[in-house]
Amino acid sequence: MKTQKGWTVTFQPGGRGAVVKHGTSLLEASRKAGVALTTRCGGKAGCLMCKVKVEDDCAAALKPPEDAEQRKLGSLLEEGVRLACQAAVWNDVTVHLPEDPLKAAVRRRLEAAKRGEEDELW
Ligand code: FES
User: Fold this and answer.
1) Rounded to two decimals, what is the model's pTM?
2) Separation of alpha carbons 72 and 28, rounded Å
3) 37: Cβ below 6 Å to ligand 1?
4) Tens of pLDDT along 41-69?
């Protein structure tokens, strides 16, 4: 819900959020929320390190992607992936952050171990 101060952006997992002005980028919102999004290009759609995912029902909460973002993401846009540095907030939105690669590797190995596949992974 838009407050007098702006739109609410919620980051998952964790549920951290921030209220931002209309048109604020998700990257700026993440910094305001204290959520770490690593970047290398300074927010110029160059590094693709700021990829986030929005759910279908939240797609209209962001400014539609412009040419640079469309070129960089291609068909990923159809899966709800956006570049946080390019996506401007136009409404309340929930954003899913990618899982940390190290944590993802550990999680996959633990899941494989539960299935009895640990020899194949180590
Ligand atoms: S910060 Fe590099 S692509 Fe978004």
Assistant:
1) 0.82
2) 20
3) no
4) 999 999 999 999 998 788 899 999 999 99
